[in-house]
Amino acid sequence: MITPMKKITLLCLKDDQEMVLNALYELGVLHVTHMKQPVCRELKKEKEYYGRLQRAIGMIPLNTEDRPSGDAAQSTLEKVEKLVQRRKEQEEVCEKLNYEKQRVQPYGNFDPALVASLTKEGINIRLFRSPSHQPVIAPEDTFLFIVNKDKNFVYFVIAGDGDFRCDYEEFHVTGKSLAEVEAALINAEEELKSITREFERLGGEWHVMNEALLMTKEKIHLLEVKAGMGSAEDIVYLQGFCPADKVAEILKAPALQGCGSVIADPSAEDDVPTLIRNPKWVEPVRTIFDMINILPGYREKDISGVFLIFISVFSALLIGDAGYGALFLVITIVARRIFSKAPPAPFFLLGILSVCTIVWGILTGNYFGASNIPASLKMLHIEWLNNEKNIMHLCFMIGAIHLTVAHAWNAMRIMNSPRAIAQIGWIGMTWLMYITARTMILDTAFPAWGYYLLFASLGCVVLFTTSPKKIKKDWPDLMMFPLNVISNFVDVISYIRLFAVGSASLAVAMSFNEMALGKGISSVFAGFIAALILFLGHGLNVALMALGILVHGVRLNTLEFSGHVGVQWKGIPYTPFSRKQRR
């Protein structure tokens, strides 16, 4: 559930500012909102230093075997920055030398000094190139020497007394020969390798640098809060939000006893942070919220419990195979043992999804898409679920139930308002869309009672969406009613994706099984190829299933269901002013 918040304003003397901030910092329960834009010279300086540390850490390879040298982070930072500058200079040198090498190479290893000396003696030697498809003709009283050809150009030298004119592209001789350029390039590349080795020797300093980075982050946070405080003569003040059950900790803190405080409920205009506290059985779903970075707003509903229940059902239908479910469960158990110090929530989530998939796979009789399964396993499956129309019918029903939960939830929240009847009307519309989808897609008869449901639902929605006194203000909601009905129908239909993706996964598995085993295994080589096909094919299918859960299973909760329940995921994370932020 979303934790209730209190809005707190603290006032203190300017002389006590540091003491108050340090006390709040240690308590770590107040989500501070700035009273003004936090700007000061020291804050700017620390942010620049933080950026330098971040860039430096990105350059240092993490090496757990090397021990720290004992150097301070500042010393290591300066070394890294010097190495970065040297590497940049050497890379520029290499780039220029490579360009010069490519330019000189077609003319061979001649001595530029010799060309210069001959020019002084009156013998003009010039180097040119011309497209290979054009004839090369030397000017009068000159000599032509072709030195190289490739598919694009002809490279040649023209020598003569005095100056002469040519329309060919001329190569301008520099002061280095090809051998000198290559030698300089080797030296520059060796220097780059030396710089890389120096970076590697700094691997033991990674943790020292990371610690400095975290300390700088803490200091920046502290300076931001300080610079963002309001002031009036000798009084400074700050404002923030605190969980209602933590307010007493602030009021009882000895260092804050001399502060003035104002405690109030958040107003409608406040951007209140969201803190979700859920029972342990719901906590695994936080993994998905964190992964896709979503959070309900403070005044929205926390759908974590419903989300976990239905994502489990959706995952089972999307994968639809007990063999894959068992594979996922084994991988989860092994991974948990390997990463025993990691947070448990992701592993619990994967375990729940795996078990639900196994149960659904057993009920449908699917095991890695195999066509021949033992009779003992066949006895466990339900024949009704082997009919595609029945599965589609079940998907529509799950969709209707899912959306019914959303509108029932809305109705319960406004139970004392006539608008609750409008939500009941939307429940009726949802089931009307369900029977309409069955009629249109599954070719079932539209029941006679469906017309009564239509008129009753329409009446509830139209008459109770708003009160007559608010009709002038809320008339756009009534005008959107036809579009909302269409949207409701589309949302119910969209649950067919559970059948479509699940069927596709089964078809892929069966296809690869047929490719690998359809003609039997006649030799060791054929067995190896079959095993390779099965491994790659089922591996691809597993990857597609994981993607399907993220794309389809999560979507049905975060878009279709959330749209009906009124969750827009506009939450601001609760980030208390705290040393605990350090990671």
Automatic annotation (TrEMBL):
Coiled coil: 73-100, 178-205
Family indicated by similarity: Belongs to the V-ATPase 116 kDa subunit family.
Main localisation: membrane
TM spans (from-to): 306-335, 347-370, 390-408, 420-437, 449-468, 489-512, 524-551
Topology of this chain in the membrane: Multi-pass membrane protein
UniProt KW keywords: Coiled coil, Ion transport, Membrane, Transmembrane, Transmembrane helix, Transport
GO cellular component: proton-transporting V-type ATPase, V0 domain; vacuolar proton-transporting V-type ATPase complex
Keyword field contains Cell membrane: no
Subcellular location: Membrane
Protein name: V-type ATP synthase subunit I
PANTHER family (alphabetical): V-TYPE PROTON ATPASE SUBUNIT A, VACUOLAR PROTON ATPASES
GO MF assignments: ATPase binding; proton-transporting ATPase activity, rotational mechanism
InterPro entries named in the record: V-ATPase_116kDa_su (IPR002490)
Keyword Transmembrane found: yes
Biological processes, Gene Ontology terms: vacuolar acidification
Domain of life: Bacteria
Organism of origin: Kuenenia stuttgartiensis
